[in-house]
Amino acid sequence: MKKNKRIGAIVDELVNNPNRLYDSKHFCDKYDIAKSSLSEDIKMINEILEERGSGHIESTPGVGGGIRYIPGISKESVVQLQEELIEKLEDPSRILGGGFIYTSDIMFDGYYVRNMARFIAQKFNKLGADYVVTVETKGIPLAAQVASLLDIPMVVIRREAKYSEGSTVSINYFSGSYDRIQKMSIAKRAVEPGTKAVIVDDFMRGGGSIKGIEEILAEFNIETIGSAVAMASREPAKKKISDYISILYLDSIDEEGKTIKISPNEDL
Amino acid sequence: MKKNKRIGAIVDELVNNPNRLYDSKHFCDKYDIAKSSLSEDIKMINEILEERGSGHIESTPGVGGGIRYIPGISKESVVQLQEELIEKLEDPSRILGGGFIYTSDIMFDGYYVRNMARFIAQKFNKLGADYVVTVETKGIPLAAQVASLLDIPMVVIRREAKYSEGSTVSINYFSGSYDRIQKMSIAKRAVEPGTKAVIVDDFMRGGGSIKGIEEILAEFNIETIGSAVAMASREPAKKKISDYISILYLDSIDEEGKTIKISPNEDL
Predict the structure, then answer these.
(1) Among residues B233, B253, B252, which one has the least CA distance to residue B244?
(2) Which of A72, A126, B136, B139 is least surrounded by Cβ atoms within 10 Å, i.e. has the fewest?
(3) How many domains does chain B have?
């Protein structure tokens, strides 16, 4: 196979399998090339990805080493994504009353989810998490995509214990958004005790849900080592959790004046 | 930019934006090349993707035309995927009783979801659907990935109307799996009346859920033009819907003998 074609083929394989460790033998055998030629190819592919801002290749030599695609996104692309999201989300027809705005279309849109997930995965890539955890429903596509990019399992916490989950552990927590006690439940077999998790959700107001997730994970001796949301509300300024990443901030919703104000996270 | 690098860069851009129509000007301007060079590049990229079984490039000439990556998966890859899934799913520790088996880890695994979604998207690509519709919760990552590959929105039907969805339409339907009446509800603003949808879910027993989704969509004059599930039960043989695609068939669960029998869909 010509070098041109080989480069394209390896790019296709790597970007479709993010964070998967490939033995260099895999590509040498597949394309019948020497290790030195593969090294040149990988060097070029790394340049391509870095120039495009879509990540890089990590090559680790020796036994247990190999080639791995680490997905990423450039700052310029994140800024553009934020601008696009803000323009969509500030549409006053999204105001639902009670401090809610309609966001399902955004959270279920493949293009936005793929790009938001790249930003979050890039932030979490070096943490060494074992799971991406979310609570149903609206954050699931984003959490699933982050987990897919990090090549680790996603765990979905349910609002109600389901028979199809086997035995579960449940807790009650206070949700500021709904101003009431809510329940969450996790399948025992979904997680291994003594591991590490990152939490991904669509929206955070006071941080009650994420705090609840942290608590239910703590029941399994699972440490939360990072949290990310698509959008966090500025109010209340004092959250129940201190350390989180948000792509956007919801500044205010003026129901009478029919305006929504959203600003980007500038600490990229 | 050298041709080698350009090929890799265009592959990265196209495979990350499936089914998105690119004007050839986009690439000609970006890489400062003539249309004839781009045509050669695209021809080569099409060969790469077809040889790898990961789809093809559709080029349509003239006004309103352009270049589009149509994702796919080879028959051999589907067969391999089915074998891997069956080996995982036939593990007797998955038996939960009551005819249920534990599948959440599979439905929330990025690698399996990406590949199952490629198979389903390939089947649905030419139908011209406007939405991929699912009902919460376990089928959401698969439906989201199919929607992402087809570049159309996903719509999630909720078990309970949520305030954050705005006004909703609800129906009751009979679920054979749970042997009771269940409710489903859809946000009015999530769908445009008079459109077409495909349905994607994790599991089908009698087809009651999918029939329910068809009915709720019919309330909006939305036609269901295809349905797909990761796994369908052989029993009952008579389903409430007639036309569906399944990746796997659940033949039997023997709770006493502690065995699960699953077979692949061979009509690929």
Answers:
(1) B233
(2) A126
(3) 2
What distance lies between CA A166 and its chain's CA centroid? 26
CATH code for the domain of B55: 1.10.10.10
pLDDT at residue B20 in the model:
97
Q: Report H helices in chain B.
A: 3-15, 24-31, 35-52, 75-89, 104-107, 110-124, 140-150, 208-218
pTM: 0.97
A115 shares a domain with A60: no
Burial of residue B195 (number of CB atoms within 10 Å: 0-12, 13-18, 19+): middle
Q: What is the reported pLDDT for A17?
A: 97
Angle formed at CA B155 by CA B149 and CA B157, multiple of 5 degrees: 140
Distance from CA of A244 to the nearest CA of B (A): 23
CA distance B241 to chain A (A): 23
* B chain contacts of residue A11, beta-carbon cutoff 8 Å: 8, 11-12, 15
- Nearest-by-CA chain B residue for A49: B9
Residues 40-99 of A with CB under 8 A from B: 44-45, 47-49, 51-52, 54, 96, 98
Q: CA nearest B147 in A: which residue?
A: A110
Predicted local distance difference test score (pLDDT) of residue B177: 73
The owner of tokens 């009771």 is B180
The CA angle B212-B86-A222, to the nearest 5 degrees, is 85
Cα atoms in the 13 Å half-sphere on the side-chain side of A249? 12
Answer yes or no: are the C-beta atoms of B160 and B183 closer than 8 Å: yes
Residue among B96, B113, B163 whose CB faces A144 most closely: B113
Whether the predicted pLDDT of A116 surpasses 90: yes
pLDDT at residue B173 greater than cutoff 90:
no
> Among all chains, which residue has been given the structure tokens 């799971």?
A131
Q: What is the rounded CA–CA span in Å between residue B204 and residue A209?
A: 31
Residues B105 and B229 in one domain: yes
Residue B12 is part of which domain span?
A: 3-71
Q: Which helix (H) or strand (E) holds A170?
A: strand A168-175
What CATH number does residue A160 fall under?
A: 3.40.50.2020
Question: By C-alpha distance, which of A158, A164, A162, A192 is closest to B253?
Answer: A164
Nearest to B209 by CA among B171, B266, B169, B246: B171
ipTM surpassing 0.95, yes or no? Answer: yes
